[in-house]
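INFO  loader      accepted 1 record
INFO  loader      residues=224
INFO  predictor   begin
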Amino acid sequence: MSTKSILHGQLKMEFYDTSYNFNKYMPESHSFDLLSRTPKKTNQNLIDIHQRRYLGNKYSVLNLIEHIIKNEISEYKSICDIFAGTGTVGNYFNSKNVEVVSNDLLYSNYITLNAFLSDEHYDENKIEELLEYFNQDIYAYDNYFSKHFGDKYYSIENSRKIGAIREEIEELFAQKKLTFKEKSILITSLIYAMDKIANTVGHYDAYIKKENKTIIFKIKEIEY
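INFO  predictor   done
INFO  writer      dumping tokens
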């Protein structure tokens, strides 16, 4: 499934390829096979778990963390990522031979951690069909999200679409038309898409006033 590019000023919902694999990402766009320790180039068209604005993201110090663990512990079979956040550390060490336990108090992080790190089965065709449906410009009504966040971090149009999609995902799950894994993938796709078009220059301490953008959701691969 090819990845669609992110256009300036548009929000695109991205689908992450959730096939369970053990290629881990390294700084400078290299992946690292934890079993053979052979560096490999990553697919530049894939969105990685670390590509989200998040204060305290440890992506830049993954090499240092691994170096310390090697020197102090040497061999290990499990890792507990107590304050997991975006999950970059747990994702980096996740392999066939290492059990990763990730914990975070923030529910949105729990959802994204489940989407990226869980090896539960999901229906890829179902996800693709839903994303194509969500990409249609049919969300024109006000909802909780647009009433509280419209014309702030997101335009009114974007907020209406975000809110409507989020409510529909929850409704599908309540009707047992989605597994929890599939729900997690869809919400994670929405979170990462929202992050790319938020009216802010960095983290979410403040928003840019009078910023208008258009929300368009597209399918994109999510690498696990």
